[in-house]
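ARCHIVE CARD
Drawer: 12
Card no.: 0347
Subject: one protein chain, sequence and derived structure
Cross-reference: see card 0346
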Amino acid sequence: MALLVPIRTENLGEGVHKKPPVDRLIEGNPDIFVWDQDASLDGRVRSGVASATAGTTRSIKDGVCEVIHMLEGVVELTEDGGEPMTFRAGDTFVMKPGFTGTWKTIEDFRKIFVISA
């Protein structure tokens, strides 16, 4: 098992198609695609690429931390009780464990992610 893993962002194939859970969908009908590229520590740490089309969902990071680097698109995240924050291609941010709020995809996005539980 390699301990140095590059994250590929091109020529990824079809990916796994998902829809947001019905209880988290706020607006629209986004399509989500995920390309998991690595998992370690018994699956508690995952990394890869994901993309989605426009829509708004409830985001809950219950016991999970996610680091995101935006490759394409525009999203707006609003933590419950907070002000909206906009992220675009080239931006990197962290959603800490316990984050709850909304994720609005304004322009279809593609991101690199690392999720740690």
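Annotation on reverse: The mean pLDDT is 96. The domain at 39-116 is CATH 2.60.120.10 (Jelly Rolls).
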